[in-house]
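Backbone-to-sequence.
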C-alpha cells in the first residue's frame, strides 16, 4: 500500500545529566605520571588501525513504522516517472492511493479533484500497532465520495496469522456492505525489521497466510485482498498459487507494467505502480471501471 530512527551497537562516551563530559579532579601527586602515561597511550592510539574503532550497524526502524511498498524500491527498484507529471488514467482502470501514518492528515478533496476514486489506509500492524491517523485517513475518502478500504501490515515473526486477522478486524479492518467499503487487504512483503521472510520456511509462510485469510473471512464474510510483490512471493512462499482462486491480487511494481504475476493469478485486481504520485506518493490502479470497483466493494 512506509524510515525512522533505530539503534546502533557502537558505545558512546558517557556524559553527565547536563550533557557535559564527566571529569575527575586528581590530587597534585601522581599528575605527572598520569600525564606521561596518557601521552604514551595517545601515541599508541594514533598509530592504531581504523579497524580498532567500533563499527556501526544499519538502523532498524521501530515496530509499527512499516508501510505498503516499503521494500519495493530497495529490492525491485523503480522506473517511476517524475512526481510532477500529471496522472493520466488508463482506459478501463480507476485511480487509487494507499496511505499510512507517514502521510498524516491527507488532502482527500485534492485527490478527488485529481481523479482518485479509491483509497486504502493502514489500520494495523502485528497485534500491537494502530495507525494514529486512521480516523482521518479512513473517513476522509468516504466523505469525499471515494470507495475506501483498510490494510494490515503483516509481521509473521511476531504472532500467528489468525491472531493478526482478529486484531485487524477489531481495529478498523472490518467490512460493511454499504457499497463504499472494500474488503480488507493483507500487506505481505519484505520484513523491514529483519530477515526478508520473517525467519519462516516457505511452507510455514503459506500456512501463516492461510491462517490470516481464513480467519478474516470467518469474521467478515469476505475474501481479503493480497498485496505483495512477485519477487517476494517467489522467494518466501515458493511462488505458491493456491490463493489465486479466491483472493484478489494487488501487485506492487513501480514500472510501466505490472510485469510477471505470482503463480495462479492470470491478472491483477489492483496495481501499485508508483511511489511518486501527486499529493500522496503511493498511487494505484484498479483493473476495471469505477462501476466494477463498486461491485468489489459490494461483494
Amino acid at each position: 500500500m512506509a524510515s525512522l530512527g533505530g539503534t546502533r551497537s557502537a558505545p558512546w562516551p558517557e556524559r553527565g545529566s547536563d550533557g557535559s563530559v564527566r571529569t575527575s579532579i586528581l590530587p597534585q601527586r601522581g599528575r605527572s605520571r598520569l600525564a606521561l602515561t596518557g601521552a604514551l597511550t595517545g601515541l599508541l592510539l594514533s598509530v592504531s588501525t581504523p579497524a580498532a574503532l567500533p563499527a556501526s550497524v544499519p538502523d532498524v526502524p521501530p515496530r509499527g513504522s512499516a508501510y505498503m511498498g516499503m521494500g519495493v524500491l530497495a529490492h525491485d527498484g523503480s522506473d517511476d516517472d517524475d512526481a510532477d507529471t500529471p496522472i493520466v488514467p488508463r482506459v478501463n482502470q480507476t485511480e487509487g492511493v494507499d496511505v499510512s501514518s507517514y502521510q498524516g492528515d491527507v488532502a482527500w478533496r485534492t485527490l478527488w479533484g485529481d481523479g482518485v476514486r479509491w483509497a486504502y489506509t493502514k489500520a494495523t500492524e502485528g497485534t500491537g500497532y494502530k495507525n494514529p491517523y486512521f480516523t482521518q485517513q479512513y473517513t476522509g475518502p468516504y466523505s469525499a465520495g471515494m470507495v475506501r478500504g483498510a490494510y494490515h501490515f503483516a509481521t509473521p515473526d511476531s504472532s500467528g496469522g489468525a491472531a493478526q486477522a482478529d486484531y485487524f478486524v477489531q481495529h478498523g479492518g472490518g467490512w460493511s456492505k454499504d457499497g463504499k467499503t472494500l474488503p480488507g487487504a493483507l500487506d505481505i512483503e519484505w520484513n523491514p525489521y529483519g530477515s526478508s521472510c520473517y525467519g519462516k520456511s516457505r511452507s510455514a509462510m503459506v500456512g501463516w497466510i492461510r491462517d490470516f485469510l481464513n480467519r478474516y473471512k470467518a469474521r467478515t464474510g469476505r475474501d481479503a485482498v493480497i498485496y505483495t510483490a512477485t519477487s517476494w512471493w517467489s522467494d518466501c512462499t515458493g511462488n505458491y498459487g493456491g490463493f489465486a482462486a479466491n483472493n484478489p491480487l494487488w501487485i506492487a511494481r513501480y514500472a510501466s507494467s505490472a510485469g510477471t504475476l505470482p503463480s495462479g493469478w492470470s491478472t491483477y485486481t489492483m496495481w501499485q505502480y508508483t511511489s511518486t504520485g501527486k499529493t500522496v506518493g503511493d498511487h494505484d490502479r484498479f483493473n476495471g471501471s469505477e462501476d466494477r470497483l463498486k461491485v468489489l466493494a459490494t461483494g
